[in-house]
Amino acid sequence: MAFSLGKRFKATRESLGMTQEQVIEQLEIRYGVSLSQQALSCIENGKRKVDAERELPAIAAVYGKAIDYFYDSWHLPPAPFPAAKPAPPIPKSRSAVTIDMEALTQRDKLELAVELIQNVLQET
Q1: Could you tell me the CA-to-CA distances from 55 to 2, 31, 49, 61, 62 in Å, in that order?
Q2: DSSP for 42-70, written as a single string
Q3: Which of 4, 33, 111, 124 could form a disulfide with 27 if both were Cys (CB 3.0 to 4.6 A apart)?
Q4: Domain of 9?
Q5: 42-47 — which CB contacts under 8 Å span 24+ positions?
Q6: Any idea what the CATH number is for the domain that residue 121 is in?
Q7: Stretch 83-112: mean pLDDT
């Protein structure tokens, strides 16, 4: 089965018995993330990407799942032949993101701690 983040979001929402409207309401109330019904529908149907910094963690928390639950695999597809030049690194931007720490798995918390330590070490 082909990977589809949106399909996993939809299947999880439906398995929880939630409507799109309920999800949208919880995103706004609990995490301050505003999505229209049309935007959520587009995400679920693969017509719109998910904001990895704000929307992905909030949606996962509303569904009570770890972020990695929504991925078939962490493996990247093989590089096309001949191998293309790697893209230049994307500069990291600072943003204030509120995360429900209780909804995160131990692995998610550890990865956040590692990222924080790496950012601090890079700044010094």
Answers
A1: 22, 9, 10, 10, 10
A2: HHHTTSS---TTTHHHHHHHHTT--GGGG
A3: 33
A4: 1-74+97-124
A5: 43/5, 43/6, 43/9, 44/6, 44/7, 44/9, 44/10, 44/13, 44/20, 45/6, 45/10, 46/4, 46/5, 46/6, 46/7
A6: 1.10.260.40
A7: 63
